[in-house]
Amino acid sequence: MNLINHIYYQLKPFIPRSLQIALRRMVVQGKRKRYSHIWPIDEKAAKPPENWRGWPDGKKFALVLMHDVDTAKGHEKCLDLAQIDERMGFRSSFNFVPERYLVSSEVRQILVEKGFEIGVHGLKHDGKLFSSRKTFLEQAARINHYLKDWKSVGFVSPSMHRNLDWVHDLNLEYDASTFDTDPFEPQPEGVSTIFPFWVPATRNPLPEFGCSEAGTPARPAGGRNSKPETVLRNGFIELPYTLPQDFTLFVIVGEKSIDLWKQKLDWIVKNGAMALLITHPDYMSFNGKRPASGEYPVEYYKEFLEYIKTTYKDQYWNVLPKEVACFWRDRQSQKRKTILPQKYEVKLIDPITDPRWDAFVENHPYGWICHLSGWKKVLETSFPHMKGHYLALVDESNEIKAGLPLYEVRSWLTGNRLVSIPFATLSDPLISSQDEFEALFNKAIHLSHHLGVSHIHIKTLHASRFIEEPRLSSDCFYVSHYLPLNGNPSEILKTFHLTAVRQPLRKLSATELKVHMGAGDDDLRTFYSLYGRTRKRLGLPSQPYGFFQALWNTFMPNGKLSLLLAELNGRPVAGHIYFKSNGRCSMEFEGWDRDVYHLTPNHFLIWEALKTACGEGYQLFDFGRTSPSDKGLMKFKERWGTELISLSEYYYPGEAGIKPSEKQDSSRYKFVRRLCNVAPDPMYQIISGFCYRHLG
Predict the structure, then answer these.
(1) What is the largest CA-CA distance in the chain?
(2) What CATH number does the domain containing 588 carry?
């Protein structure tokens, strides 16, 4: 959002509505002549998509009607507007703002029963949704809640504010926040097409995971200073509106007829494209009443529908937005090229005895510690309710091309399931195409049936762009904070928050804190004591010591795990465990003594780890997974100059499993946290052991 828009939306609540409209009229009148060559028609937008074969049943054009309901006033008129559509033989969608006014469940139910669609129109309609990545992610969690609760698959951004990269964090099938041409909107850049289009999640979030021209993962071309992107989610269908919005046309521009609508529609029909119209019941005057300021007669809308019916009888395909999105998604899937080897097979392999596996992981751009055979040893020796099953896609030369590690987790309490991969923040399927994932996933389903487990749970960071699987549902609750490293700690220091990070770091020189690199079992036990006390304070169960011992014995000797302890006058007061691999240094486990928290020992250890990571040539410093509901931890990590990326989780069948967003709100989850917090130490150890016998 540019500075002028930012200032305007900060002041908007204090500006009378009449003055808002007057200001917009002044701006539009000044622009209209200047942009007459592209509004209301931009000839460049008529170019059809590649291999375009037309609409279903030979229809000449698609007609999509949408109604954005901006206010409570508009909400009151919805059923009247729906009655007009229904009476004239049309169906449309109604997009509501969930947290600006009370959205009646009864109204939604009536609309759905009559064949209309319900969509989500922002969250608060306050102009702040895209003001920052942090704000967007916080609101996206709520928007996803309403998408699920309302059984909606579509989203329309208020005022057409947008960042299509960020929209990948919403669980939707389509977005309708763009236009072919509309220079009068706050973000005036159009998409220059009157057809739907596919928005793939093609950008990788991290510099070491680029994408070659062939579409396969590749090592970075930009080196350490490559600027990370910020999102990766499934692709979605974008539905640009192609007819001027009613508010713009009648309230702002001041048109007194529907001539511009008819002119634009005729041009769209001529080019066989999609006529998508967004209108607002808020600004319609019903029942013959004289329009108030900021309104127009609903007869304009009726007249336009009648024009469509009479002029283009039997030539239009009037469908709901979700239906045209489904049509376009099917078209997109038919375009997709198969890039699997001609001869391939998905095999179950044992990574511990098969030397191909670890070599494949080390050379795959998504490979991480948890993919290695050592992780299988760690989990199976630490947790008897887990067993690893490794699916490998092997080509005709017997070379591994893709892989999907799955762990059978058996529990009478939380259900039997396959998880990729337990207790790992980064656990992408090791794939480079959608076809590879489909082949592996089909085998995973057969494996789940053979094992008699109820569902499959797959966690991703990088690979989401290759997961276009209708059999899976998704959740996007957790986020990861990461910091790009440029090899120069002094430059990185300048990006930290002044009072929350830089000043405490300066004061550390006056303390007696010293860093000690863990090297033996005694150091590991010291860390575990700090870790256990910290988890108990936070109301969280502790993983068993045997798990840390197995991690230590497996990954510390080869340099993929390091332990840093902060000591005060020789007494350990904080400890961090880091994983190191594939250009990334990741903070995985931490513990600290509450009595010395005022000395900021965590700041001390993070800074020491950062400097070490820079010196060792790592490209990213990962602060680990965070729940957005943990506001304190979110703020702490953000103040280190980090960037955010959403972590996608997928479930099969779609309704299976307890998703993170649901678990956080469950009474059982809250009860266990409270119990961990107040239980005596011996009881806390029992509770922790019981919990981790069922987690994964």
Answers:
(1) 88
(2) 3.40.630.30
* Cα–Cα–Cα angle for 552, 553, 557, rounded to 5 degrees: 90
CB atoms within 10 A of CB 132: 13
Q: Which residue's entry shows tokens 């049509």?
A: 327
Residue 339: asked if its preceding bond is cis (omega within 30°), the reply is no
- How far apart CA 339 and CA 434 sit, in angstroms, is 9
Both 390 and 539 in one domain: the answer is: no
Question: How many domains does the structure of the chain reveal?
Answer: 3
Whether the per-residue pLDDT at 646 is higher than 60: the answer is: yes
Name the domain boundary from 308, 335, 362. Answer: 335
**Domain carrying residue 158:** 3-50+60-200+235-335
Q: Please, which contacts does 562-565 make with residues 24 or more away whose CB atoms are closer than 8 Å?
A: 562/517, 562/518, 562/609, 563/517, 563/518, 563/523, 563/524, 563/527, 564/515, 564/516, 564/517, 564/518, 564/605, 564/608, 564/609, 565/515, 565/516, 565/517, 565/518, 565/523, 565/526, 565/527
Q: Within a 13 Å sphere around the CA of 32, how many CA atoms are in the beta-carbon half?
A: 12
Q: pLDDT by residue (tens digit) across 539-572?
A: 999 999 999 999 999 999 999 999 999 999 999 9
pLDDT tens string 20-64: 667 777 777 778 888 889 999 999 999 999 889 999 999 999 999
Whether the Cβ atoms of residue 573 and residue 567 lie closer than 8 Å to each other: yes
The residue assigned the tokens 């389903």 is: 445
* C-beta separation of 154 from 175 below 8 A: yes
- How many residues are given for the chain? 696
